[in-house]
Design brief:
CATH superfamily of the largest domain: Glycogen Phosphorylase B
Shape: globular
Number of domains: 2
Strand order of the largest sheet: 3-2-1-4-5-6-7
Strand content: 15-25%
CATH architecture of the largest domain: 3-Layer(aba) Sandwich
Largest sheet: 7 strands, parallel
CATH class of the largest domain: Alpha Beta
Distance between the termini: 16 Å
Oligomer: single chain
Length: 374
């Protein structure tokens, strides 16, 4: 069968690539055409557009690039119509994908959405759009099933969290060789995960770097995004005490002692590696002001870790609270041995709430079953 997939960022590229591998196991004649990244390309098929070209974040940033996005949406629709896939699989990236779904639906192409839009956070009214244009929705957080089915009467399938698969598939690494390769020395590592989009890196990374002199007993290491070379990060570095590891975040986390993490998927990844963390978030004043008006008043947390746990198990430093004083204090707190035992216990409870492995396999089976049923 012919599969058309759309992923618009690094995490979507990861989960879509694992889904493609699972589809290949179940469909020997699987053909892929997609918008995504290097991981999807490594599985096989035709890459139409790389997600790097679509990496806009925040209301103001999207508005500034609205013409470019409109051009890409038009090109995507034209490409789908020409390819005539057996199914359209949209992976996260809802702002783009929910503008493609009605078009595909009108063409009679089955529409499947993997990793639901975060409508529980804001803009709940869009659930009606999902009901109308998405044939099958796969959710990856247990609380999402209740949100869609009990609150909005929209049947969805909870498949578990794909991050558990991605992490479980990793083999152990040789820490000594890893440190030697990246010139990391012997100090305990504090990993810096400032995100992958230029807007969030620009807002978040400088403050992370600024506190390194207060923690001389630790090695600060930037986890470079797949789409960013060292030259890009070098513009933020004022000394050579900060190390850099490109496109190897999981190996870095596996040997880290603590982490400073931009809010997003990386917070959950860090938790699954059992690394104590501080969650950081800052955006433009306009984006934040608009966001505060749109975000659900029922939402108590911003990080996926706290949302899944339904408790404050990691510190969240948001907007004005993301400052040097709070960041130093929060990092010291998670470095304190007396606090770390409780953090690890909370992470184990979190993992249990997420359920078992096998998300990609379950989604692949469900997609193929829906396409081959009489």
């Amino acid at each position: 069968m012919k599969y058309y997939l759309i992923a618009g960022e690094a995490s979507g590229d990861l989960h879509a690539s694992n889904l493609m591998k699972s589809l290949q196991k179940k469909d020997a004649k699987a053909q892929f055409r997609f918008w995504g990244g290097d991981l999807m390309q490594s599985v096989g098929g035709t890459l139409v557009t790389h997600y790097q070209e679509l990496a806009f974040m925040g209301f103001w940033e999207v508005l500034k690039n609205s013409f470019t996005l409109s051009r890409y949406i038009k090109a995507c629709k034209k490409d789908i119509e020409h390819y005539q896939p057996d199914v359209l699989i949209m992976v996260d990236y809802s702002g783009f994908n929910l503008r493609i779904a009605p078009f595909a639906k009108a063409l009679g192409i089955p529409t499947h959405f993997y990793i639901a839009p975060k409508l529980w956070a804001w803009n709940e009214k869009r659930v009606e759009k999902l009901k109308k244009y998405i044939d099958k929705m796969y959710v990856i957080f247990p609380f999402e099933k209740d949100f869609f089915e009990k609150k909005h009467h929209y049947p969805v399938e909870y498949v578990g969290n794909p991050l558990q698969d991605a992490i479980a598939k990793r083999g152990p690494i040789n820490e000594d060789l890893f440190r030697k390769k990246h010139q990391l020395g012997n100090k305990p590592i504090i990993a810096l995960l400032p995100g992958s989009r230029s807007q969030e890196i620009r807002k978040i990374l400088p403050l992370m770097l600024s506190i390194s002199p207060d923690f001389n007993d630790y090695q600060f290491v930037i986890a470079g995004a797949p789409n960013r070379d060292f030259d890009y990060y070098q513009t933020y570095l004022s000394n050579d005490t900060i190390a850099f590891v490109k496109n190897n975040t999981y190996d870095l986390l596996s040997i880290s002692y603590a982490a400073l993490v931009a809010s997003g998927t990386a917070t959950l990844e860090t938790a699954l590696f059992k690394i104590p963390q501080v969650v950081c978030y800052q955006t433009s004043a306009l984006t934040y002001a608009i966001g505060k008006k749109l975000v659900s008043k029922e939402l108590q947390y911003i990080s996926l870790v706290n949302l899944v746990a339904d408790a404050s198990i990691v510190s969240e430093l948001l907007q004005d609270k993301y400052n040097k004083t709070h960041l130093i204090a929060s990092l010291k707190a998670i470095l304190d041995p007396q606090n770390r035992k409780k953090i690890f216990e909370n992470y184990l409870d979190l993992e249990e709430k997420l359920g078992g492995k096998g998300a990609s396999e379950r989604v692949a089976s469900s997609i193929i079953k829906s396409l081959t049923k009489d």
